Structure formats: structure tokens, C-alpha cells
Amino acid sequence: MSSEELYLxxxxxxxxxxDIKGTRTLAAKALEAGVDAQVLITRYLVPAMEEVGRLFxxxxxFVSEMLVSARAAGGILELAEPYLAQGEHKATGVVVTGxxxxxxxxxxxxxxxxxxRGSGFQVVDLGTDVGPAKYIQAIREHNPDIxxxxxxxxxxxxVMGEIIQAVSNEGMRNxxxxxxxxxxxxxxxADAVGADGYAPDAAASVRLARRLIxxxxxx
Length: 219
Known about the structure:
The chain has 219 residues and is of the alpha/beta class. The chain contains 9 helices and 5 strands, in the order H-H-H-H-E-H-E-H-E-H-E-H-E-H. Strands 2-1-3-4-5 form a 5-stranded parallel β-sheet, sandwiched between helices.
């Protein structure tokens, strides 16, 4: 095994351990040595974040540990971005996210964003208090594969249905997959408002986003 292979093989463990500095150091070394940025992401970063998601779902990792790992992965993406821009490489997919109108809670959304970015997605965050018009504008501007909506309040969750209806009214429903989540949201609610999927936590959101991307490609 070459020294290059040896230090590359250390990157997933560093991400899983949440070693932000160590991850960044080895990623920078790899990129400077000519390792393809897309290979660095797909072969080392993505599997590591999948393992972080698994550890979170089985209760071995808590939100704080998951966030540190996501930050470590984010360091690789930051370093890789200039290299990706030079080639024909594309992100795993483009996701537009937001907390729906009337709701100012964003912690859950921000965690999902970090996990998505750490898994190779391009994320456009619309922030909080986002209504139909802003989502429609974002679809036109960014041509996302997925739009994600979050709500923490039972009084705002029905806005998700309004946004989905607005997307349909604009003739855009077939352009995007729609993912919903948040404390009061259930699979039954997601089905009722016409969403393509529901995720109970950040790790599940990443897994679902990947599945929705595949469904979109095959449709």
C-alpha cells in the first residue's frame, strides 16, 4: 500500500471521530497531490457520513457528535470546491431547504443542511419564515432536484401543503421531489399533503434525499 493510499484511508475515520483539523490536513494533502476531488468525496467522505448516520440512528452518536463529524466533512467540501469548479464534476444533487412561513425555528433544518452538505449535496438554505413565493422563486433560480420543508409548530405545518399546491399550480411539481420533516410531522401527514417523502431526523433525511434523487433520475 502506498503512502498516499494509507493517508487517504485515514480520512473516513477522522470524519467519524470528528477530527476537524486532521480531516482538513489530510484532505488538503490529497488534493495537492492530485487526488481527484470527486473521488475524495464519493470514496471517502460519503461512506464516512453514512456511517455517522448509522451510529446516530442506533443511538451510539448524539446530535453533538453528528454535528462535529458534519463539520469535519464540510472542511473537505470547502477545500474541494475550487477543484470541482475546474472540472465537470457535479454535486450529488441540489436541495433547497427552508422552515415554512410563520415558523422561526431552524436548528433541525440547519443540522439537516450540514449532513446533506457533508454527503456531497449542494444546499440552498432559504432560512426561516419561508412561504410559497420564495420556494417558487428558488426553484426557478436554482433548478433543484429536491425541496425540503421543516416545521416545528403544529400551527405552521399546514403551510407545507400550501407550498406543494403552489408548486403544482406553477406547473413545477414534476421538476422537484419534495421532502418534509419536523417534530409534528408524520408519514401520514406527508402523504396527505402530497410530499414525496418524510424523514424523522437528519440521518434519515440524507438517506431519503439519495433515494429521491435516484427516483427522479429514473422517472
